[in-house]
Amino acid sequence: MLHVRDLTAGHRSDTPVVRSVSFHLPTPGVYAIVGPNGAGKTALLHTLAGHLRATTGQIVLDGRDLTGLLPHHLARAGVALAPQGRRLWPSLTVRDHLTVTRPTTGGGFSVDDLFDLFPPLAARRRHHGHQLSGGEQQMLTIARALRTNPRLLLADEPTEGLSPHIAGQVTAVLRDLPDRGVTVLVTLPHTHAATALADRVYVLAAGRLSDPLDPHDGQADLKLRHHLTLTANHPE
Ligand SMILES: Nc1ncnc2c1ncn2[C@@H]1O[C@H](COP(=O)(O)OP(=O)(O)OP(=O)(O)O)[C@@H](O)[C@H]1O
C-alpha cells in the first residue's frame, strides 16, 4: 500500500527533523506513530502530505511514486491530512466545510455519509467553525479530509485535548475506516492510546522511526516505552 524509504526532511535543509525514515504499510489498516513532543511526528505527516519537502527518500502509494509532489497533487493521488490544531475556516458552516471540499475522484464519502459517521456534526451543520466544541472541530477536520476520498488519511494527534468519551468517538471512526478502503496513519502522544487503536505501532523519537510493534503482543506497551526511553537517551 504505502512504501516510505529513507525519508529525510526538515524545515531547513541543514537541520533534518525526519531522519532516514523507512516503513511499509502492507494492507489497509490503522497504523500509529507515537513519540514525545518535538520528535518529528507532525513533520513526518507533513512530508507525506507534501507540505514539507523531502531532501532524500521515496514515497510510493499503491505502486505510484509520489515523491516531491505538491499537496494538491498528493490529494488527487489519494493522500489527505487532518492537521493538528484543526485549521478550520471560521466564517464557514460545518456544511460549507464539507461542500466546498470536493472529492478528488469519483465515489467516496458524500456529505450525508460524513454526517452519519459523525452525528454531532449533523446536529451542528449550520454552526460556524468557531462555534464548535474541540471534539466537534476535530470531527470536522477528519470529515473534511475524508471528503476528498483518500486512500491514505494522515491524522495528526486527533485526540489531543479531547475528553476520553469524545476521544473514544473519534477513534471509533478511525478504527472503522479501513473497512471503507481508507488506511489511517495516526500520530498519538501516548503508547496506551496507540496500542488500543492500531494494528501496528511505531515509535518516532528524535526523527528516527522504530520497527513496527504488534499491539496484540502482550508486551507491546512495555516494549514501546522501553524503545522511547532508549531513543531519548541516545538520539543519534
Ligand atoms: N515551522 C518550523 N520551523 C522550524 N522548526 C520547526 C517548525 N515546526 C517545528 N519545528 C521543529 O521541528 C521539530 C519537530 O517538530 P514536530 O512538530 O514535527 O514534532 P512533533 O513530534 O509533532 O511534536 P508535538 O507532539 O509537540 O506536535 C521540533 O524540533 C520543532 O521545534
TrEMBL record:
GO MF term list: ATP binding
Domain of life of the source: Bacteria
Pfam families: ABC_tran
Domain called ABC transporter: residue spans: 2-231
Alphabetic keyword roster: Amino-acid transport, ATP-binding, Nucleotide-binding, Transport
UniProt keyword annotation of ATP-binding present: yes
Family the entry assigns: Belongs to the ABC transporter superfamily.
Full protein name: ATP-binding cassette domain-containing protein
Organism: Micromonospora antibiotica
Lineage summary: Bacteria, Bacillati, Actinomycetota, Actinomycetes, Micromonosporales
